[in-house]
Fold this sequence. Notes:
Blueprint: E1 6-10, H1 40-51, E2 58-62, H2 72-80, E3 87-92, H3 97-106, E4 111-115, H4 121-128, H5 135-149, E5 155-159, H6 169-178, E6 182-186, H7 194-200, H8 205-216, E7 219-220, E8 230-233, E9 240-244, E10 257-260, E11 265-267, E12 277-278, H9 279-284, H10 289-312, H11 323-326
Parallel strand pairs: 1-2, 1-10, 2-3, 3-4, 4-5, 5-6, 6-9
Antiparallel strand pairs: 7-8, 8-9, 10-11, 11-12
Helix pairs in contact: 2-3, 3-5
This protein binds S-adenosylmethionine and iron/sulfur cluster.
Amino acid sequence: MNQVDYLRISLIDRCNYRCQYCMPEGSELDYILQKDLLTQEELLTLIKEIFIPLGFSKIRLTGGEPLLRNDLVEIVNQISSYEQISDLALTTNAYFLEEKAEDLYRAGLKRINISLDSLNRETFNNIIGRSAPDLWQKTWRGIQKAYQVGFDPLKINVVIIPGLNEGEIEDLAELTIERNWHLRYIEFMPIGNDELFKNRAWVPSTEIRERIKQRWGLIESQVKGNGPADVYQIPGAKGTLGFISQMSECFCDRCNRVRLSADGWLRPCLLNETGQIDLKKALRSNQNLEQLQQAVRLLLTDKSDINFKLREKGALSSYTRTMSQIGG
Ligand code: SAM
Ligand code: SF4
């Protein structure tokens, strides 16, 4: 069994965007109340007293939009001071990065993934469900700023949706020719907007690869990520192209991660809505930390089994929580 040593933490379930595939405008979302969010102190206790002793060494901060969390820089500062944590990363939509990138870098963050689904202003606004005129430009400036202050290489996350940004597969791939960026195409999953998924479906990684190959050729990259992406490169390009194919492939046997929601639920798997533990409740009722550690250890032991069983049951077709709530 794979060692589970990677924790993805959703710091907040709210977001300043309304991406069509994640939390579309008009969808009814029950936001977590402020009092129910894990506090900074609770979060750090869980990392120090539960996850590090269980061998966790990689953490990703995500959301919702993690830059909406006012204490983000302090959280990064604290986590990066733990010597057992060898990899601390953040996933963001980049809107506030222009202002925050430098502080985050100084606080010890070393890796950032940025979501950017389009290079076209109108398509971008359409996807993110917002209409202000300078949103794309501000996002782009955030990306540039992150690169300038030292986040190198940058990772860019792209979700391709038929009829929305499918025409930009090559334009987005082209970004990696002159830049040392790692672009990753993530297959659209039926989490967040079932209707869009049913109407538009999803584009398999093989199809995206084929289109890029037709234009420039494509070779397997020597640069391997430590996640589930299959990594390729346009010949001669400075950056790489990763493909995360959770719809068309099953990589449960390679999975090394668990997810902690902003209100403290620990999930063994993105697909799992039952096998979770309420860590916030345990902390707030002063449950003995050793016992809690034991419960988490048990969840990790059962994890691979749970993944495979859910796949077999076809769990990919129904969810009650969005990616922003689970921590994408
Ligand atoms: N707000 C930040 C952002 O957008 O980068 C972090 C949270 S977001 C939920 C994390 C990632 O989940 C993004 O890269 C987004 O594209 C991806 N995501 C959200 N909903 C998805 C879906 N239904 N299928 C595939 N990826 C999705
Ligand atoms: Fe917000 Fe990220 Fe979800 Fe888009 S994908 S709505 S930016 S949380």
